[in-house]
Amino acid sequence: MKLTFYGGTKMVTGSCFGLEVNGKKIIVDCGLKQGRDDVGNDELPFDPAETDFVVVTHAHIDHSGRLPLLKKLGFKGAVYATRLTAELLSIMLRDSAYIQEMEARWKNQKGKRAGRDIVEPLYTIADAEGIVEQIVVMDYGDVMEPFQGIKLRFTDAGHLLGSASVELWLEEDEETRKIVFSGDIGNYNHPIIRDPQYIRQADYVVMESTYGDREHEPYKRYTKELAEILNRTFKRGGNAVFPSFAVGRTQELLYYIREIKQEGLVTTYPDFEVYVDSPLASEATSIYSGNLKGYIDEEAKRIIMNGESMFRFDGLKISKTTEESKALNEDMTPKVIISASGMCEAGRIRHHLKHNLWRKECTVVFVGFQAQGTLGRLILDGAKKVRLFGEEIAVNAEIVRLKGLSSHADKNGLIRWVKEIGSKPRQIFVVHGEAEASEKFAASLRQLGYPAEVPDLEQSYNLITGHVVKYGIPVPKKKVKGSQAYISLMAAGNELMSAIEKSRDMANKELLKLAGKIRALLEEFKS
To answer: Dihedral sign, CA of 347, 285, 195, 132?
Structure first.
């Protein structure tokens, strides 16, 4: 019975974890790496064709974005997800595949002139559609037994419509272990979705730590703060540009702007128009306006029961075509532009930044986490200039970060979630956070008496004995690029260093013998 960390360790994207029990191989999440983590998306350290089934915590691309790659590489099993996760995946994976195909086409147009080899997309729309057909839908609280000795249940994580924590009961050699994967744990008192639901028992926990080193501001409704931003932007005659995740965050923004419109909080330009410039966001909003039974909070239920729309209001416009998107920057009327991607790494938002970042009258409002290495993080960290489409753009616009809109629990929320488990788990593995945040959160858990550690990439644990069975790859201070073979070599070197550290109490004769063998190996390598 083994747990292996294939992604999402000491990084905030690319979540991917493997389990082996009774000869069956399970993958929990298979996310796309983004920003500084964007290395090796086309390589997987396991064989998809030998994987028996996959579990997806939620639809965000950093948890699901490589699912079509599994299909492409021969995976034929079931993908377990909640109903709304399945609905969102059907549009998000197609959108991701479209981006992969367009990027490959663009690279090939440039590469052909330079005489470079043809670049293949990471996966295609056909791969995305194929993996969606393999999804098996489950409701919260249902218990599924994919194979004998393996049981599965989803619990609402309160992060996104359909998001879940995963409970897995594993039996092998008359031993039973329960492992819980937190997924992304939601913030509390946010609109639309319910607060995170709790899990009462676990032997092992694999949990996120995105904001494990900090606390959010005290909860408040953000209509007033958002209205103040719009008032001063429109007074200057500028646009308010929101780089926003198409699924979840865009709908939350529309929810707040509907309240602002209803209460007349924007006085400088009360009839302002709001443009959602993302086909994906438009499709996602349709899902958010559909059958939400069992997924939303009481306030959202009341709005729907009263016959109102959570996301519709006067002045809302949807930009579907490329021509409509371009026209937004030709029209100098002050407006709100909500566009993807949320970290400014791809999509239409980059064009809007090109046309608005240099304008002092405009405001760029960040409403979600910006991973290291992304354009969004660069702007937030105070860059004076950025490059977009080969052109240097001055950052003159007002830059605002609405911290309270995070859909992730902060340090206190994460600790609250752990405490609700009840009896202390044998081990908590802290993942899905930048290295410093994960280490600080693990230290906080240890101070509270919980056994917690931050695993390395490709590290493996025996869940029966609780021991490491394979040491992983330490995260370097600077990102190292290389093939899977090179990464495996790094892992072997790390295992060697671990063995050396454990040999401290060996007899001097044995230590000298080991040193001699290492030197002989190095000499052989040099030759």
So the answer is: negative
